[in-house]
Design brief:
Elements: H1 22-39, E1 46-51, H2 58-71, E2 80-85, H3 89-92, E3 94-101, E4 108-112
Parallel strand pairs: 1-2
Antiparallel strand pairs: 2-3, 3-4
């Protein structure tokens, strides 16, 4: 996998979570997080899901959220779901944020900050 503006990263991962299928893990997260988010006073409700791997694509996440929304009406009260890919977070401080729901992938942006890396260049706090 190419990561823009990087010299290269070796990533070791597994395709599916060891404690169940991707769908099961996502459903568990939705059950736990969405009710709290819906109850909080807010003008906009944005659910942020972390993905530390690369095996599950953005489209797969969108499709699963569409399916889950049929069962969990509170999910429809969320304005947006974003995912943050943290595969290269520890190695070089990069995180990729992607809007995934509703309506599929719309926006992507990188945050690049070596201060968050475990391998900080000289002079960074």
């Amino acid at each position: 996998m190419d990561l823009p503006e990087t010299d290269g990263v070796v990533v070791v991962g597994r395709i599916l979570p060891s404690n169940g299928s991707f769908e099961k893990v996502l459903r568990t997260a939705i059950k736990k997080k969405v009710p709290k988010l819906v109850e909080a006073p807010a003008d906009q409700r944005v659910l942020l899901l972390e993905d530390g791997g690369t095996a599950i694509g953005f489209t797969k996440l969108t499709i699963e959220l569409d399916e889950i929304a049929k069962e969990f009406s509170d999910l429809k009260k969320i304005d947006a779901v974003w995912t943050v890919h943290t595969t290269s977070w520890k190695s070089n401080g990069d995180a990729l944020f992607v809007y995934v729901w509703p309506g599929g992938v719309r926006e992507k942006f990188w945050i690049k900050d070596q201060r968050f890396s475990e391998q900080k260049p000289a002079g960074l706090p």
